[in-house]
């Protein structure tokens, strides 16, 4: 068993059997308190532990002294023990009260300091707060805490210019999202968002992506361990095509901005997270012409009015036919340069006419409905448009980079 501290023993056990020894014993306790108090004054975070240690009702030092020294004192020592106990208790109470007042006072001063920069509702409110702070300073002075406080309550000159804090700008990715949304909102699309944690059903199955499709490969998809049913981080924003069509009858015209995740090794053109904006338009009379017209309009709005587009055959399980959309290079105008690798064209995004198989998953009538879809890599589009060459620059948040896109 651990050795008993002195306040867990009786005075008789301690051998304090004369009034002189009792007085000395109490002086020792008082000295200990004073030393600890001085330490806590310099380190107010320890205040509560200190307070409970001394005056905690159940097992604070004062309680133990009352129980073990006072109550069990032999008859001839009752009087000196009682007197010494009362003195010790008043000493401790006074010190703790003084310090409590000092802490409250610091709060008053802090409040005054925090609002002083011209934010008071009236002159009277300012003066009242200043008076509270000055009283507080006096209390703290009395508690021996003058030093760090007084310089802080120098009168504030409200006629001086305020402190200017940089308000920052929207990140390049955010700006690009907003630009893309503006373009599609202006031609009748609305914006919806969806979950980043998805089920394989929405991320794959319902998009007609069969089991063997490479996007399902463990190499590409983050699966979430430990969930009861399988979950994953969405690898694209396309699941929102399904969720939207499940929820609402046609017509549908949406874009879906958001984050997507893939298990790529980070390099100049890849991260494990990137941004996409998905598009979907479904109605009774949507043709390939509408698709091409929308793509053209988008490219001219985003890259400039002279931009041309072309479609190359491609493959996505959820579109048929599928296409890669290219734009004429916005830097050389199509004559060939370093950015378009001398081809005159730049790959923009994947797209196509919605595969009728997808309608089967959402109870849409494939006989009656048609539509198109697209999925853009937002980071990629931002880099193209603004000439950024390294993906990591987008996420390091170096202000020297960010400031270039005010
Ligand atoms: N989800 C595809 C991807 O992440 C991109 C995509 C291609 C989306 C064609 C579409 C689409 O909606 O029609 O690679």
Structure, explained:
This protein is of the alpha+beta class. Helix content is 44%, strand content 16%. The protein has 15 helices and nine strands. The protein has helices at 11-14, 19-42, 47-55, 61-70, 78-115, 123-142, 146-149, 172-185, 200-203, 239-247, 288-303, 356-361, 378-386, 391-396, 399-402; strands at 190-191, 197-198, 232-233, 252-261, 273-283, 309-316, 319-328, 345-354, 370-377. The strands form two sheets. It has a seven-stranded mixed beta sheet, with helices on both faces. Strands 2-3 form a two-stranded antiparallel ribbon. The site of 3,4-dihydroxyphenylalanine (DAH) has 11 residues, from strand 8 and strand 9.
Entry keywords:
alpha+beta, two-stranded antiparallel ribbon, 15 helices, elongated
Summary, kept brief:
With 406 residues, the protein is an alpha+beta fold.
Give the percentage of residues in beta strands: 15-25%
Intertermini distance? 69 Å
Task: Output mean pLDDT.
Answer: 87
* Cα-based radius of gyration, to the nearest Å: 37 Å
- Ions and ligands: 3,4-dihydroxyphenylalanine
In DSSP terms (H or I, runs of 4 or more residues), the helix count works out at: 15
Question: Structural class, from helix and strand content?
Answer: alpha+beta
Give start-end ranges of low-pLDDT stretches. Answer: 145-154
Approximate shape: elongated
Strand order of the largest sheet: 1-4-5-9-8-7-6
The ordered H/E elements are HHHHHHHHEEHEHEEHEEEHEHHH
Main sheet: strands, sense, barrel:
7 strands, mixed
Report the helical percentage: 40-55%
Number of strands: 9
């Amino acid at each position: 068993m651990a050795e008993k501290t002195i306040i867990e023993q009786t005075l008789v056990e301690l051998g304090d059997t004369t009034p002189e020894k009792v007085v000395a014993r109490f002086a020792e306790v008082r000295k200990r308190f004073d030393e600890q108090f001085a330490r806590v004054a310099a380190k107010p975070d320890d205040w509560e532990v200190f307070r409970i240690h001394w005056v905690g009702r159940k097992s604070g030092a004062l309680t133990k002294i009352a129980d073990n020294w006072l109550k069990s004192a032999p008859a001839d020592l009752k009087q000196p023990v009682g007197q010494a106990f009362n003195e010790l208790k008043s000493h401790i109470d006074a010190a703790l009260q003084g310090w409590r007042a000092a802490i409250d006072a610091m709060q008053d001063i802090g409040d005054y300091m925090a609002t002083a920069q011209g934010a008071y509702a009236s002159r009277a409110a300012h003066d009242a707060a200043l008076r509270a702070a000055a009283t507080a300073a006096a209390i703290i002075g009395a508690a021996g805490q003058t030093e760090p406080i007084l310089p802080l309550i120098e009168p504030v000159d409200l006629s001086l210019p305020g402190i200017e804090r940089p308000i920052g700008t929207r990140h390049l990715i955010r700006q690009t999202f907003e630009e893309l949304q503006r373009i599609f909102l202006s031609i009748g699309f609305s914006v919806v968002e969806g979950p980043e944690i998805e089920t394989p059903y929405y991320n794959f199955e319902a998009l007609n992506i069969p089991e063997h499709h490479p996007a399902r490969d463990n190499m590409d998809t983050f699966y979430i361990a430990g969930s009861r049913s399988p979950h994953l981080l969405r690898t694209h924003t396309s699941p929102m095509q399904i969720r939207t069509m499940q929820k609402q009858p046609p017509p549908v015209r949406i874009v879906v901005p958001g984050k997507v995740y893939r298990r790529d090794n980070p390099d100049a053109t890849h991260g494990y997270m990137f941004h996409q904006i998905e598009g979907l338009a479904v109605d009774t009379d949507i043709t390939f012409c509408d698709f091409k017209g929308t793509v053209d309009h988008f490219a001219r709005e985003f890259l400039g009015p002279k931009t041309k587009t072309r479609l190359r055959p491609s493959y996505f399980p959820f579109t048929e036919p599928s296409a890669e959309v290219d734009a004429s290079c916005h830097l050389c105008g199509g004559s060939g340069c370093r950015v378009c690798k001398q081809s005159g064209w730049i790959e923009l995004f994947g797209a196509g006419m919605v595969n009728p198989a997808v309608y089967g998953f959402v109870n849409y009538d494939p006989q009656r409905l048609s539509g198109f879809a697209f999925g853009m890599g937002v980071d990629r589009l931002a880099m193209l448009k603004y000439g950024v060459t390294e993906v990591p620059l987008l996420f390091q948040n170096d202000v020297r980079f960010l400031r270039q896109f005010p």
